[in-house]
Amino acid sequence: SSHFGSSSTECFAIVRALVCLCSTRTKMKFCLAALAAVACSFGSGAEAALLRAQSRQEPDTACGKGFDNLVKGSQDYYRTAAVELWTHPSHTMDNATFEQEFECWFASMCTTKCGGLASQADARKAKLTEMCQSVEADWLKVWKLFSQEEIKWFKNNYPSDEVEGSEEGSEVHYKQAMETAKEVNKKELLCMTLFTIDDECVKWPYIRLTK
Question: Higher-confidence residue: 18 or 189?
Fold first, then answer.
């Protein structure tokens, strides 16, 4: 067991002390390194919580107007997507572990109307549904369904920019919890992104799967 102990209260007390150092972007990579070291003592779920505590200090609009400020129909859409797309046996609980990160990205997409990207539901919804609900298909198969315009938009808008000055091979990201959520659940995140675009960002209170 960790020499820090297992108490979540103690854990967040450590985080608060570290967050005090994170008042500027120039200090960010050092703070995140310290946060990561603490997180190693508590496991992946704690890592998400620790990094999330740090990111709450950042005065930006990366999550658009915020998930809680979306209309109920949009929030309901996300809830159905979180059930339908997180089907892999090893990922079924990740939609809860990284709930705030996925809600953040979804809120950002809704706020910006997916950058004005047009729905391609007629052309790919059947294939997208099949791949996203398959436990065999990997994230690369979903990535290949993205258009070049969608790839550019995703790379430019997903909120996990690499911190300037990070050393090669040990990159640190401004929103490390968002980056961790993306890497751990890359397929599910990409699926949610395309479904949101194809459901017109979003016009229904539920994810529209092709049965």
Answer: 189
Which amino acid appears at position 121 of this protein?
A: A
Residues in CB range of 200: below 8 A, 6 or more apart:
119
Q: Using alpha carbons, select from 85, 83, 189 the residue that is nearest to residue 129.
A: 85
Alpha helices for the chain (secondary structure H): 8-19, 28-39, 44-55, 72-84, 94-97, 99-111, 121-132, 139-143, 148-157, 176-184, 186-198
Per residue in 200-209, pLDDT (tens digit) is 999 999 999 9
* Inter-axis angle of helices 176-184 and 44-55, nearest 10: 140
CB 198 within 8 A of CB 120: yes
Q: What are phi and psi of 173, to 5 degrees?
A: -110, 145
Query: pLDDT band for position 60 (50/70/90)?
Result: low
Q: Report the 10 Å Cβ neighbour count for 91.
A: 16
The Cα 94–Cα 9 span in angstroms is: 22
- Residue with structure tokens 């002390």? 17
3-state secondary structure of 142: helix
Give me the pLDDT at residue 25, please. Answer: 41
Q: Are 163 and 89 in contact (CB under 8 A)?
A: no
Rounded Cα distance, 154 and 115, in Å: 9
